[in-house]
Write a structure and sequence with these properties.
117 residues, alpha+beta, Alpha-Beta Plaits
Length: 117
């Protein structure tokens, strides 16, 4: 089965969990080093799903672009990374994915008939 693209809205389960998640690694107990983008990319490849991109602001939620076989695989991955108790997740399947970053020869996707996939 091919992997599908998903946009997830992750909402922190508490203000304390938001603060913990956003604390720089070197200020945590025990401290660790910050990852560069290549290291983050490698670490974001899980057993069940892969997080390709993330956008975090100052709100109590953030967004991630995932690829997985299905929604359950994303929930399994969050559990494997022990993030399921830190965030609540709303998964949005995406049937069309185009990106200037990917810069590929992928052809635009459209529904085969009508306006729904």
């Amino acid at each position: 089965m091919a992997h599908k693209h998903f946009i997830c809205t992750h909402t922190f389960s508490s203000e304390n969990n938001r603060r913990l998640f956003l604390t720089p690694p070197e200020k945590r107990t025990p401290p660790t080093k910050r990852l560069n983008e290549k290291e983050w990319s490698k670490a974001s490849k899980g057993t069940y799903a892969i997080c390709l991109q993330t956008w975090v602001g100052n709100d109590d939620f953030f967004f991630c672009h995932w690829i997985a076989k299905d929604e359950d695989q994303i929930y399994k991955q969050l559990e494997a990374w022990e993030l399921n108790h830190i965030v609540n997740t709303l998964i949005h399947p995406m049937n069309r994915f185009m990106s200037a970053y990917r810069n590929s020869d992928e052809i635009e996707q459209f529904p085969e008939s009508g306006d729904k996939w």
